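INFO  loader      accepted 1 record
INFO  loader      residues=316
INFO  predictor   begin
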Amino acid sequence: MYLNRTIPRVEIEAVSEILSHLLTGDVDKLPSEAVLHRFWTFFDVEHKQTSRYLTCLRKHRLTEVKCYRDTGTYCGSRFGQRSPERLEQCRRLLANEKTYATAVDVDPRTARIFAEYSSCFRSYRRRVDETCVHILRRTITDRRLRAAKVVRATMNSMRPLLRALPTLKIIHLVRDPRAVALSRVNFGETGRGIYTLNMKKSESSIIAEASLYCHHVIADIRSRLELEREFPGRIWSVRYEEVVADPEQIFRDIYKFLGEPMPRTTHDEMQKKAQKGQVMKLSTKWQNNMKYKEAVTVARHCAEYFQLLNISSTET
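INFO  predictor   done
INFO  writer      dumping tokens
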């Protein structure tokens, strides 16, 4: 396993480019993997406005893309399962950089895996372009207010977007590292410890996960603070714990930040979700499921996180 992977500039720029195409409705320029991603079905409840697009994908049997099987084995299904060198090789081969494949003398079997992957997606893309993409385009362009939830992008990808899209606003959501760590170790066998197996054996998986999270989120917060100075009034930071504690006020603050009236239906749905989080005690669950020594160690490892947010590590 490999820790603290530095994200290459080409990936940072690619994230900006994809988000730009998505937010502007320029779906023809979106990667095939984006318009055919399995998350369209996994999280269909979270993006109800695209229900007609999902219905179309299902109608034409475009929700079960089979192109990833062999590339997933070669490249890993998650970051950290392969070396940075292998990940870079996979990125360039997935981008179908033929000159690169020739230069590094890729073995015939590996070359065939990626050739089949490209052929597979060309077939799916042709079908989705002929049947459903126009629905996605209209869904986006017919709406004045557009939003995208992005989990794995970094704040470094936001600068080009802020420059290119003058009306773009960004909400930066962060969460207590102890809660994040607990969530990650309880995720399941496919995710547990996947990034942290090389941490010191004397440390628990919770400490390892929290330390890794803080390594990345601290860098993100620092980038966000720089962007706030460059683009005043266009970035808003909020903690998950604040949302759960006072959802009514946070929702109103968000829509005020956006300069938009808050729809009653949105308010009611968000209240319902927040109340569920309160009942489940999601923001404080870690207090009863983490050893005192672990909590103290995480607070020490993540001291800069709390300092940058100007909060105490004992604040919940």
